[in-house]
Amino acid sequence: MSSIRGRLLKWLVGPILVVNLGAAALTYLLAWTPAQLAFDEGLRHDAATLAARVRAGGAPALALAQADDGAGESSWAALHDGSGRLLAGAPRLRPPQRTGLMDARLNGEPVRVAVAEAGGGLRVSLARTTRARQQVRAAIVRSLVLLEVLFSMALVGLVWFSVGNGLAPLARLRARLDARGSADLAPLDDAQMPRELVPVVGAFNALLGRIDAGARAQDDFRANVAHQLRTPLAGLRLQLEWLAARHAGDPDTGRSVALMLQANERMIRQTNQLLSLERAEPNRFARARLAPLDLSELVAESIQGFVEQAARRDIDLGFELAPAPVQGDRFLLRDLVDNLVDNALRYTPRGGRVTVGCNTVDGAGANAGSLLRVEDNGPGIPVHLREQVFERFVRLDEGTHGSGLGLAIVRDIASLHGAELRLSDAPGGGAVFTVNFP
Amino acid sequence: MHVLLVEDDAVLADGLTRTLQGHGMLVELAVDGLQADAQLQRNPPQVAVLDIGLPGIDGFEVVRRLRARGDTTPVLLLTARDAIEDRVRGLELGADDYLVKPFATPELIARIRALARRNAPKTGIISLGNLVFDSGARRARIGDKPLELSAREWAVLEYLLQQVGRVVSKQQIIDTIAPWGEDLTLNAVEVYVSRLRLKLEGAGLALRTIRGFGYLLEAAPPAPAA
To answer: pTM for the full model?
Structure first.
């Protein structure tokens, strides 16, 4: 994977180092050349002095005697005549071919040689070791390398920091995207964005918009289908009820119509559950719609339907309602109550007993907050199946008609409200569902 | 009772017509908004049952025009959508009640009757089963036999009859029959109801107890054929 930071660093640090190296080479030349010239000038001056002495008629041996300067450098002088014959001085110095400065080796050591005319075809050669020069050069190189390393490190650090600084808006953008909820498709705000990022954010927002529109269209489609089904289902129910009343005396027709009514009820229920699921989708859940509600009032609003359903199955349905304030979405909580009670009425055997209660508990205990309880005296739910019942499309009793969605809806809605959903044994056998609102 | 039913779905309209007729109502049907608007002006019903999603002008618009004319005919809106916005909008425009399809038939009947009573003069005579209850004359009878009731029993029965087919809570009964904060306990309500139950024997009525909540009065189902 390529990285903008990597690319920037490569294309900034590389050239900077090359330029730096070039500058260092130039600095080296600028420092070393004058030093070299100064040394050469000293050597030539010494050679010229020797030559002047020879010309003045001084004894060559004497004139050449002070060859060792004692400054850590060794020097050798020699006097040759025009034909290259050594007249005095160090025999190892070769007869010079020309006057001026040249490099040579003597005793296995590099030396610098200056040759001066001493008149009458005589030439004075003065050779000197280059130890001082090497020291100066080493000092220059050492300083340069040290400076170069320091500068380069400072530059790389600076570039690193600047690149990081320059990329900070990207990091902030990423942090904002990371912090979003999984279903948050709202466009990004580009007010604080650097100019270079605005087109990127714009393109991203356009994409978000398309995804959002797609998701909405899909939701709307499902909701529409479910809504469209409601009118014909309502019509069918009324027609079947009329038929049932008309043929009350005819057991065969009556039985058939009763079965059709049951199927109609199931279709109605599943259509409603589909819409409930739709409403309980986290991205449809609007916190703004949360309002202070009372569970006892919500249950009271749903009672009419429960009573009819309980009467059909000959179930003794009772209530123990005390004020239980919660913050919630009225429609979702109605769905929660409906599905929980429907589940109990559905799975409690004929002639059984179902009690719906709510109350509120002060303090900080495990049961503190507002509680909704639905208790039945049915067969109960074995411990090992208690997690499963909240999964979608799980039905424990294959003989009972249900979509397997009811308790999944209850679980979804409870979790949207931050409520804890518990399933336990009723004192006399049977199941107790408890929803504990914070 | 004269009901104007406005519903464009033929199956539902037919079913509703027969169901309402079965409950002794006189049903006039309109299948679109403009027709409904015209019939509401020509022959005002006691209650209008109005679908929201109609061809032409929708149910909201029909209610808006009705109320703009100063017409107070009670309106029950029917809708396939249960979005809160629809509910709020319908009630804001002046509809009196709201029912989401598919509805339970007893619920529909109870709501239509409640709306009809709201506009009817207080002197109405209610008959249910063998009971004839004349709230204007403050007389009641079961069949030919006069029914003797105390003032409190009378008030409780009147309220239950107004809410027939609907579950009412004990608290609602207290709030209705003793609205000025008189000291009436839930136990007292239970006593009145149990006396009423005794006195209503043979009236063809079922006064059911909803454990821990309240009561439901309805016509007793016909005895199952033996």
So the answer is: 0.62
